[in-house]
Amino acid sequence: MPFLGISGMQYSGGSLAGARILLAEDSNVFTSMISAKLKELFDIDIEICRNFEELQFAYDKSSEPIRLAISNINLPGAEKGEALEYLIDLSIPTIVFTGTFHEGMRDELIAKDIVDYILKDNIFAVDLLAESICRFLTNHRHHVLIVDDSATARALLSSRLKRYNFRVSVAENGTKALEILKANRDIGLMVTDYNMPDIDGFELTRRIRASIGSHELRIIGVSSSTNRLLSARFLKAGGNDFILRPFIDEEFYCRVNQNLDTLLQIQSMRLSA
């Protein structure tokens, strides 16, 4: 059945069954709600682990890889966050579903490179969790190009996007970016720095827009400059969005999602026209 997420995500690709997903949660209410929602929307059957011992057993009992884990921070037998540490140590992509939250905890979670975190105290918590799961399981259909002359910046953005399960290509300058775009017409989003030595972000965007429209490629510009007018100049050059550095993970992921959601909606309307 078609799915419309809280943030505007639309998905009508049918069943997502087949991916092995663990839910480490001791609340009967939430395990029932999550199980029912994922089965209804995506035909997903999840494995429920109500304590740390069951989580360890679930991992040990099968050689089938765990595609995604949803974990409470505090689990019986792991009251100090050991369950989350266990999943992270195993390099299992994890969404944290928690009722305990504060700013310091948020920083700790982000530092662990989790996929996402959902707060239980939100009335739409289960719906938000379902959307986060759907995004992770379907993000591989999106190919994103990062353009930045800084190796550090490229690595940072690349790791963020790969954490969310996107396919990622990188270019160290505008010339290389044009080559990659020509060879990979499936790229739907480009994130480009403004200040680059050969072709700056404005000129790169202008050249791309001469042959590739926003219905095929969304472009997000980024810059650490304090010049607030850069965003206006970039948008007038044909960009779709602009983010000033430093930005936080949640903001960056939201803007990426919004642009890709818009791209899919435009493409859907063009196909049905």
Automatic annotation (TrEMBL):
4-aspartylphosphate modifications at: 193
Superkingdom, taxonomy of origin: Bacteria
Entry-linked Pfam families: Response_reg
Residues in Response regulatory domain copies: 20-135, 143-260
Upper lineage: Bacteria, Pseudomonadati, Pseudomonadota, Alphaproteobacteria, Hyphomicrobiales
Name of this chain's protein: PleD family two-component response regulator
Gene3D superfamilies in the record: 3.40.50.2300
GO BP term, example: phosphorelay signal transduction system
The entry's keywords: Phosphoprotein, Transcription, Transcription regulation
